[in-house]
Amino acid sequence: MLRSGIIFSRPALRSTFYALRKIQTSSLRPPLAFSFDIDGVLMAGPNPLPAAKNALKMLEGDNPFKTKIPFILLTNGGGYTEQARSEKISKQLGFEISPRQVIQAHTILKEWVGKYADSPVLVLGGRGTEMRQVAERQAIPLQASYGFRKVYTPIDILASNPSIQPLVTATPADLSSAIPMDLSKNPISAIFVFHDPRNWFTDVQIMCDVIQSGGIIGGPYVELDQQLSNPIEVVFCNPDLIWKSDFSRPRLGQGAFKEAFQAVYKALTGKTYPFVQLGKPTTETYIFAEKTLNDLLSELYGPFDSPPAIYMIGDNPESDIAGANRAASRANSRWSSILVHTGVFDPMKGPPTHTPTHQAADVEQAVRWAIEREASRLVGAESL
Question: Which structural domains are found in the chain, ordered by start?
Answer without folding.
Answer: 30-39+50-76+280-338+353-369 (3.40.50), 107-277 (3.40.50.1000)
